[in-house]
Structures are given as structure tokens and as C-alpha cells.
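Data card: per-record layout.
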Amino acid sequence: MEIDIKISELKSAVLVLSSPFMSLALISTVVNVFSIDPDAPISWAVIIIMNMFAYSIWIYAVYGVNKKSCLTVQIASTLWVSYIFLWVMAVIFAVGSDSGVKYVCSKQKCPESLWLCKNEWHKIPVNNVFHSDYMMEYANDNVRPAKIKKLESRKRDHNSRADKGFVIGTVIFIIILILNIYGFTLLTRYTSVLARQDNCCSTDREMAVHDEM
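The structure for this 213-residue chain is written out next.
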């Protein structure tokens, strides 16, 4: 009886948690499917594949939970670990490599936010553009101090927004990572409790057969 209650609680938790995961995957897909970046087709494909992978995993997990299939939920939890690993690698690739942004990000929407919102911290070339503007100004004989001050102000504003974007992106990444790990924990706990129930049922059947004999 206690195991049945535990299974029911874990089933409810999995069903509740699956809703935001599937919703975020669908929203991210819709947001990005209509904003193809012609300069970064690989990143667009990565976004769609990752989102559909996450959505399919939780559809499979919900099916396994409803059917009380230990094997199905075990496969779903294994696939979810694979997804978490790939997602974390994509985040590291986007943060640790300037050239990696074009492979895993689309128009400043990067994996740490599940490609849902822009993060100006990833806009690496901006400083080079400002530097080029300075050189163009100084190349001319007529140097306008007002123009230089304007460029410096724009650079400071961008750096400020970039710093805030980095902090917000880090917080979002940590929250999503915790939720992902919690989802994996729920799936593994469900399979563990369900396996215990199957063992108990098998023991009860063996005892009933023994009593009849």
C-alpha cells in the first residue's frame, strides 16, 4: 500500500514537471523555426533537433509512467541524461569559444536560455566595430570630439548590458540545470519504486502459490 502511494506521488510529480519541459521545447521551436539565420544554418538545425529531442523524451516518459512500464521510463531517463550532457556541452561551446557561437546560437539566442531570449553578452564583434569607427575618425583630418564621446558612450552602454546579460544568462542556466537534474532524479526514483513494487508482487504471488500447495 505504501509503495502504491509513493508511485502515485512520483507519477503526479513527473506529469507536472513534464508540462513545462515540453512547453518550453515547443515554444523555443516556434520562436526559432520562423527566424532562420541564413548565415548560421547549422545553429538553426541544432536548435530544432535539441528541442524535438527534449519534447520526444518527455512524451516517452509520460507514456511510460501512465503504463507503469519500468523499461520505458528507464530508457527515457537515459535519454534525458544524454540531452543534459549535450545541452551543457552546447552552453560551454557558446561561452568558451567565440567561433562556437555561430554553431549553437541564433541571433544572440543561445543554449543557456534554451534559445528563448537574446543575450547581448554573446555579441563579440561589437568592440571591433567601435575600434574601427575610431580609426575612421582619426584617419580623417577633421576629428570631431563629440563623435568620439558618442562612440565611447555607446561602448560603455553596450558593455553594461553585456555584463548584465552574462549574469542573467548564468542564473537562467543554473535554474534550468537544476530542473533538468531534478527531472532525471524523479524518473530514476520512479523506476526504482516501480521495480520494488514488481518484486513485492512477485513475492506475493510465489507465497500464494506455496500456500495453495
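Known properties of this structure: The radius of gyration is 25 Å. The chain has six helices and no strands.

See the next section for split statistics.
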